[in-house]
Amino acid sequence: MLVVMQHEATQEQIEGVVTAIRNMGYEARPIPGAQRVAIGLLGNDGRVDPSRIEGLSGVTEVIQVSLPYKVVGREWRPDDTVITLPNGAKIGGGSVVVMAGPCAVESEAQLNTTAAAIAAAGATILRGGAFKPRTSPYAFQGLGLEGLKLLRAAADRHNLAVVTEAIDETSLRQVAEWADIIQIGARNMQNFTLLKAAGQTRKPVLLKRGLSATIQEWLLAAEYIAAEGNEQIILCERGLRSFDPNTRNLLDITAVPVVKQLSHLPVIVDPSHGTGRREKVLPVARAAVAVGADGLIIEVHPKPEEAMSDGPQSLTLPMFDELMIEIAKVGIAVGRPISMATVAK
Amino acid sequence: MLVVMQHEATQEQIEGVVTAIRNMGYEARPIPGAQRVAIGLLGNDGRVDPSRIEGLSGVTEVIQVSLPYKVVGREWRPDDTVITLPNGAKIGGGSVVVMAGPCAVESEAQLNTTAAAIAAAGATILRGGAFKPRTSPYAFQGLGLEGLKLLRAAADRHNLAVVTEAIDETSLRQVAEWADIIQIGARNMQNFTLLKAAGQTRKPVLLKRGLSATIQEWLLAAEYIAAEGNEQIILCERGLRSFDPNTRNLLDITAVPVVKQLSHLPVIVDPSHGTGRREKVLPVARAAVAVGADGLIIEVHPKPEEAMSDGPQSLTLPMFDELMIEIAKVGIAVGRPISMATVAK
Amino acid sequence: MLVVMQHEATQEQIEGVVTAIRNMGYEARPIPGAQRVAIGLLGNDGRVDPSRIEGLSGVTEVIQVSLPYKVVGREWRPDDTVITLPNGAKIGGGSVVVMAGPCAVESEAQLNTTAAAIAAAGATILRGGAFKPRTSPYAFQGLGLEGLKLLRAAADRHNLAVVTEAIDETSLRQVAEWADIIQIGARNMQNFTLLKAAGQTRKPVLLKRGLSATIQEWLLAAEYIAAEGNEQIILCERGLRSFDPNTRNLLDITAVPVVKQLSHLPVIVDPSHGTGRREKVLPVARAAVAVGADGLIIEVHPKPEEAMSDGPQSLTLPMFDELMIEIAKVGIAVGRPISMATVAK
Amino acid sequence: MLVVMQHEATQEQIEGVVTAIRNMGYEARPIPGAQRVAIGLLGNDGRVDPSRIEGLSGVTEVIQVSLPYKVVGREWRPDDTVITLPNGAKIGGGSVVVMAGPCAVESEAQLNTTAAAIAAAGATILRGGAFKPRTSPYAFQGLGLEGLKLLRAAADRHNLAVVTEAIDETSLRQVAEWADIIQIGARNMQNFTLLKAAGQTRKPVLLKRGLSATIQEWLLAAEYIAAEGNEQIILCERGLRSFDPNTRNLLDITAVPVVKQLSHLPVIVDPSHGTGRREKVLPVARAAVAVGADGLIIEVHPKPEEAMSDGPQSLTLPMFDELMIEIAKVGIAVGRPISMATVAK
Which of A41, A59, A65, A135 to mutate to test the interface with D (most CBs of D within 10 A)? Predict the structure, then answer.
């Protein structure tokens, strides 16, 4: 960490910073410059809170040189994290996993049709919302526990794993019981109590990036989970808030290689929320595989025009079949094969 | 609600939309145009979920004409909501209330010094974080219940009300017991479980705007609270995520008159988080009073250079004294007097 | 166009809007609703200025239903525009073209080495800035006309076409004389005088998207060029302004399929500016080809560490060789072959 | 400037950076750290181009410690710039100046009515667009030179100065001849050729902030003008691009005190473009005066419902009268009186 002093900082102010750093248990090294003094903090273990220093008299800026996340950072653990699910599917480590299913769990028939179709097409993980965070209090909020049971049953019938969202501590306990992966949604990326609770389970966690979260904030959110002892974390880029009404969100495709350089965690992409329009899902899914994503999460519905939510971005079953074929070609081209259901068995 | 059909939509697709609208219990009225057909949905009571329609075949766009929030909207309740606290302070209705105190509760001495000073300067509400949502898991997370008790004691000694943040259901119960206003932070603006829980208390709720929330999303978050029966809601603009590192956040001053036109709820401004720099707090506080805000929430610390968090944006006690004098002048100029402690007694 | 009236609009205000629309030469059709009246404007030929209507008494909102660009829109011209350059290279129509070269023209040796290498690797167009728009007045501003001549000579030696930026009317005349494609940079996307001047030449124009331009504004900027009679326009996505310092810009990969649906113009991607870091160029270039881009523009420098500008995002020559091989594989996987130099001859 | 080396940088890479800095004529001072080495560049005169260093092998980041603008920065010139216009109006130095008039010059009658009214209300500068930069090529583009002459005549009749926009070199020459202040619009903030041309005139320049420009980019754009010898520059905050459709732009009120700390140039606010809605102009104008702006620029039209552009954000003449009275009260409250027409005479 580097503390830049003001142009006109006094010797007393400089010594104040040096003393403060030493009182925190670190070494301080002043660096005189032509126009101003800077003070290096040595021995930073990632636990230094810069706002303790920023408020000191004479300080103009505090610059972080070390990265503030340790457990999820690649600096201290170079090898990719690979997560293995009960059905044999693997996330991370060079292949591409596909999660698919409806936005919301609506009925047994809907789920069974979808699960059969996605398994046949090669997906290994069934998605579907039982607890729905909705912008309006008057929108459909999900089937809850009943939805979880429907997901589990449909998935088991086709050797699929289950990923579904938890929105609070109560639903988290239920999701941890019935599903294989606990999803934390974009709106809850900095719900720190929920992150800690997810960190105390022993189930893999899918952590979506917040609507306007920096990559550092996202990795620090993952660090909250990891700091509780659960390092099975999958990051998911799902698009950022944008000024342009042409797309629902602004998918940050570059986040994939950026995160993979900074962290050993697997990163997947959600082209359904990232674009908001079904005809954009295929091209963006191809791009996600090409850029190096470890997986995709895709909204699929047997009858999108009857979907209770997100109909416009849901693929039909034939469109999903086509998508699986198309991304398989791209996966081969970039040396990242799609891990198909048969592989997972 | 208006459903715009695609240029080349067939008669069958148009009838599909008409039928879907009627099945939802509303009236549908097709409007032929030169280039495309639009279909009006009549009788919208704010409970129509547009995504049910967006997914239908042949639909290009669904345009919301009515506003989707009802209880917090001004359309059906023209008069300003005024909230009265146990110490007599009033929020809304033409005067300006000031909440002040440290970012984090650190000690009894810190709080007592601060409470005495802000009360003497005319503030009526003490703020201070006992539960701190922090970006890093390694940063100071607050004193918890002990902090709440210290806040209550310091406030009571000076006839101040207490506002403090709840970050989950557990802390919410404690905050509801010890404080006068429950604060929901920006990162939790769409933590719908927390919003519902706050709506089930009978304490006023201070709802901060999310880092990249639209005004409509913010009012819908308030609607979540109101839909549970608690209409004592105070909105707080605290700055949006920005691309410019010169300020911590980008304060949206125009949000104040925009929200006051759309809603009857009081709106306050947080110039401390909104700017992130103490020397910007006074000018922006003046601007907030001038623009018509119903109050301010200001970070104050007896020794900002020793603050455990947010030191750089905390005012010293003499700076706060000066701020109270300066905003009082602006309040008189715009016909919105500051409600001083003496008024509250 | 649909004019939504206020809830409480009077009959007189409604008639005022109807009269105004008729005076502009269009047909007006009032649509009564349960809560408010809307008025349809029929016969919109894309030349209706909505701000003429927005200011009328009683109007709450004007909604554009038709798209405001006509010549560049796909609605009236479904077939892709294909541009053929003097060296035989084609842009648009199903293959992928590669433009490469240094950020700035620095010397004859630099250009010759680069041109030889990119031609050998299969690129067909040489890029390089002779006129540089720089944020600081003290930064290197380019070699000007001398740079154009160096570009032309190096390109001709290797059967390459030349693309280079014009920053004002004077440089535009020179670029139009010496280059094959006139580049308009992101900062000049709404420099309407420059757009009109480019529209009056008969050279293809590469129009970069502005730092925070909506897709509609970008297509309207293209419409400025097209309205002057020059329809040989190539659009280039190069990343948007972002709040996250981890990347220089936020590349909007979804813009490619969005634009290709709305317009018949070819769209290329600039992964060098889009990411700002050379190690991110290869993955994002793969993604761009996978998503359906008609081409790439890539910064390459024989010695990036000596580059006068944009060194950190420039590929070395061996990295560029590898990129061409890798994107060729992706191009085959998505059915969009890279148009190689040999094809162009 | 501080060059941060990668964790694993070799001694050879460190020496490469040291040599490069020395070759540029500056002093290099390596600073060993616990985890990585940093290298200070001493003697930076603001002309060091960081991208020359960022591309060097082993470099992870280059941190600017000094500010890159010199002539417009307050660091080297602490006193406020005050600009005096031919009619006696002063901009900067503690009072608040008001510029007002229609978005576009439409007719002699329109201008005369407006000029008489704003002068009577106390404004000292007439605004009005003769050259209009419009998003669509089919929108009204302004009366050009004829409009300039109408502005001059109307202004002279009421002892007003004239501010109007130049959009290219041709219109700049005409504006410099007929007006008192040359306006550079937001879309042209980084049209460097236009900035240099404005810097070569001896007329004051009003420089609007770009739609997504950082404050540093804005001040560097001003530095372009100043570097040509024209230091009579007025900065104008007019709102940033936003994701929220509720306002046309997102006015950055905090930019006023931020810029005034960094620069000695006067800063004014445009609440008309900043909000896009006439009923928001008065509250935001009050806020701008309260925050310390040196002036306002306001759109006024005798009949906004007939305005050729920007009708929805134009004040009527009686609304402008009220605004002048209201901001005068705020000006007194913050010790920044409005400079009225009578003062200017």
Answer: A65
Of C27, C31, C75, the CB nearest to B40: C31
Task: Please say whether the dihedral angle defined by the alpha carbons of residues B6, B9, B14 and B17, taken in this order, is positive or negative.
Answer: negative
Please state the rounded mean pLDDT for residues A173-195: 97
Q: Closest approach of chain B CAs to the CA of C244, in angstroms?
A: 7
Q: What strand order describes the sheet that includes D27-31?
A: D27-31, D38-42, D2-5, D59-63
Give chain C's domains with CATH numbers: 2-63 (3.30.70.1140), 83-334 (3.20.20.70)
CA-wise closest residue to D97 among D202, D234, D300: D234
Dist CA A124 CA A341 (whole Å):
5
Longest dimension (CA), chain B: 75
Cβ contact A261–C252 (<8 Å): no
Q: How many beta-carbon pairs below 8 A join chains A and B?
A: 127
**Which residues lie closer than 8 Å to B151 by C-beta, 6 or more apart?**
B105, B111, B126, B128, B130, B162, B164, B178, B179
- Tens-digit pLDDT profile for residues B36-64: 787 878 777 666 777 778 878 888 778 77
Contact B215 D290 (CB under 8 A): no
Of C52, C191, C309, the CB nearest to D51: C309
Q: At C31, give phi and psi (nearest 5°).
A: -125, 100
Dig out the tokens for A118 from the structure: 């996605």
Between A246, A261, A275, which is nearest C214 by CB?
A246
| Closest by CA position to B34, among listed C39, C42, C25 | C42
CB-count exposure of residue A16 (10 Å: 0-12, 13-18, 19+): middle
Tell me how close the Cα of D305 comes to any Cα of chain C, in angstroms: 5
Residue predicted with more confidence, D11 or D75 = D11
Q: Which residue of C has its CA nearest to B28?
A: C33
pLDDT digits (tens, 9 = 90+) for C108-141: 999 999 999 999 999 999 999 999 999 888 888 8
Phi-psi group of C101: left, alpha or beta (phi > 0 → left; psi -120 to 50 → alpha; rest → beta) = left
Nearest-angstrom CA–CA distance, A242 and B309: 31
Cα C251 from chain centroid? Answer: 13
What residue ranges in B157-289 does DSSP mark as E strands? Answer: 161-165, 181-184, 205-208, 233-237, 267-269
Chains near A with 3+ CB pairs less than 8 A apart are: B, C, D
> Which residues in chain B touch residue D248, judged by CB atoms under 8 angstroms apart?
none
The complex's ipTM works out to 0.90
Q: Both tokens of residue B328?
A: 């009082």
Residue in C with minimal Cα distance to B250: C243
* D343, pLDDT greater than 60: no
Q: Which residue of D has its CA nearest to A76?
A: D7
Q: In what order do the strands lie in the sheet with B38-42?
A: B27-31, B38-42, B2-5, B59-63
Inter-chain touch D33–A43, beta carbons under 8 Å: no
Alpha carbons B260 and A82: distance in angstroms, whole number: 51
Contact A291, A253 (CB under 8 A): yes
How many other C-beta atoms are found inside a 10 Å radius of the C-beta of residue C169? 17
CA B332 to centroid of chain Cα atoms:
25
Q: What is the pLDDT of residue C226?
A: 95
Residue B317, phi then psi, degrees to nearest 5: -65, -45
Mean pLDDT of all residues in D184-210: 97
In this complex, do A246 and C216 lie within 8 Å of one another by their Cβ atoms? yes
- Which residues share a beta bridge with A90? A84
**Predicted local distance difference test score (pLDDT) of residue C345:** 38
Closest to B189 measured CA to CA, from B156, B147, B219 = B219
Q: Do C136 and D49 touch (CB under 8 A)?
A: yes
Q: How far is C42 from chain B (nearest CA, A)?
A: 6
